[in-house]
């Protein structure tokens, strides 16, 4: 089969498109013919060897994808040959085939394309985990999605809107803001514009936000501490470096800073997350927005694009 293989850590150029043996299904697993693979920022950190731990070389990157079940193991009970599915949390989606535990494979509704299916797993699971399991969001609360036009941000907006939260969002590009407004989010701010923090505070009548989902903490965490309400929560979803903050700004509001790592979600949490995702897809409240579909052999271009500012939807590899 064709796959992207990382044989050494480094820049996007280390992503090699090559022929390798097809994996074999195990008794409790599912062989999937991958039609599309999701590209996440974490993929670039894993490729570079800077994620906090290093994969054993060589490896196939990618933890999200969608496709068709090709074969099932003898102990598999819910998946069947020919089924349209999406999967999450199994390394190796940048390939024509992947073997996944049945517990990580979920039915893909007919109205969702394979490209959209590849955009579901980590973004929608991360957003749900952050918003409802870590921040304990409830209807009527105010939430700011700080950097809302990428895959996780769009997922968070759809979750928050459908659960009745008062939603505010920021995006740095006009295309990103247009996407958000077309989703029915009325309060959208340009985080590249001078004074946007004051604009948000003015909207909240200087009360601040009860929940903030932060996508780029190394740039925005200090601003979040100005924007968060008393007793509010800031969930850090993404960061690309370090930042210096004044801890007194946390103390005076009795705010909570919460880090998220989806890999640490418990089995019970994952069950709740993906039950909610499957229900949301079927009901229509969840629908990924695709920014770019890039051929598998050009995976290096996807890794370059995802690290550029101005997100406007999800990047996927088509196979």
UniProtKB/TrEMBL annotation:
A GO cellular component annotation in the UniProt record: cytosol
Compartments reported by the entry: Cytoplasm
Subcellular location, principal: cytoplasm
Any Pfam family: ADH_N
Residue intervals of the Enoyl reductase (ER) domain: 10-317
MF annotations from Gene Ontology: mRNA 3'-UTR binding; NADPH binding; quinone reductase (NADPH) activity; zinc ion binding
PROSITE patterns assigned: QOR_ZETA_CRYSTAL
InterPro entries in the cross-refs: ADH-like_C, ADH-like_N, ER, GroES-like_sf, NAD(P)-bd_dom_sf, Quin_OxRdtase/zeta-crystal_CS, Zinc-ADH_QOR/CCCR
CDD domains recorded: zeta_crystallin (cd08253)
This protein's UniProt keywords: Acetylation, Cytoplasm, NADP, RNA-binding
Protein name stated in the entry: Quinone oxidoreductase
Oligomer and partners: Homotetramer.
